Amino acid sequence: MQKIYPCSLSPEEYNKIEHHSQVQCDTVCPHCKKALGLRALGYYLRWITTLLGALLRIRVRRFRCRNCSGNVSYLPSFALTYRIVHPQIVQDFIDGVQPTRAMQHWWTLLQAYRRSWQKWAQTLRQELGCAFGRPAEKETASDFWQRLRRKGGSVMEITMGLIKGWKVTLFRRYSCHQQTEQYQFSQG
Ligand SMILES: [Zn+2]
């Protein structure tokens, strides 16, 4: 399972101070709900981009529950699930702000992100109902994006809210945010 937590550091700062080693896990296991069961289980490596669009590899902290053997990893909010481009760059791209060099560098990938958003928007709108304000009649994906941005804040903030409240992201639903995989280890 993956959790995302608010992290005000830049990716560069996160690496510099080895922030992954300071991540605090939940006191209650998100799988079995037993208290104080989680213990550190190293980390995994993943790629992300900085705000300037440079590629950087970060370590993501991982824990395992003593009770149910379920895993939990804690992703800093500047990293989107399975997407390497920094959320601020994604936000600026879909908002339609003046292209930056970082945006231009990742343009093809950003277009793919936008297509994923457009494809997913209708399902997401149904899932959210009026949680981010009432949808206008015949609301387009673009209108919906603006409504989410108005009511939910930045892409980082919206993403944290969506994962916490609905177990989805701005682009799709991922199995790592669901709790259906809770017994993946005990079944084996
Ligand atoms: Zn557990």
List keywords for this structure.
188 residues; alpha+beta; 2 domains; four-stranded mixed beta sheet; 6 helices; 4 strands; disordered C terminus; binds zinc ion
What does this structure look like?
By secondary structure, this protein is α+β, with helices and mostly antiparallel strands. It has 2 domains: 2-83, no CATH class; 87-166, no CATH class. 35% of the residues lie in helices and 18% in strands. It contains 6 helices and 4 strands. The chain has helices spanning 11-16, 87-95, 101-105, 107-128, 141-152, 155-166, and strands at residues 2-5, 38-49, 55-65, 71-76. Strands 1-4-3-2 form a 4-stranded mixed β-sheet. It is globular and about 50 Å long. Mean pLDDT is 93; it is low at 181-188. Bound molecules: zinc ion (ZN). Zinc ion is lined by residues 29, 31-32, 34, 37, 65, 67-68, 70.
pLDDT averaged over residues: 93
Kindly, what is the distance between the CA atoms of the first and last residues, rounded to a whole number of angstroms?
Answer: 17 Å
Shape: globular
Beta-strand content bin: 15-25%
Strands of the largest sheet, in order across it? 1-4-3-2
Kindly state the number of beta strands: 4
Q: How much helical structure, as a percent, in the residues?
A: 25-40%
Element pattern in H and E: EHEEEHHHHH
Q: Identify the bound ligands.
A: zinc ion
Major sheet summary line? 4 strands, mixed
Structure classification? alpha+beta
Q: In total, how many domains does the architecture comprise?
A: 2
Low-confidence stretches: 181-188
Q: Radius of gyration, rounded?
A: 17 Å
Q: How many distinct helices?
A: 6
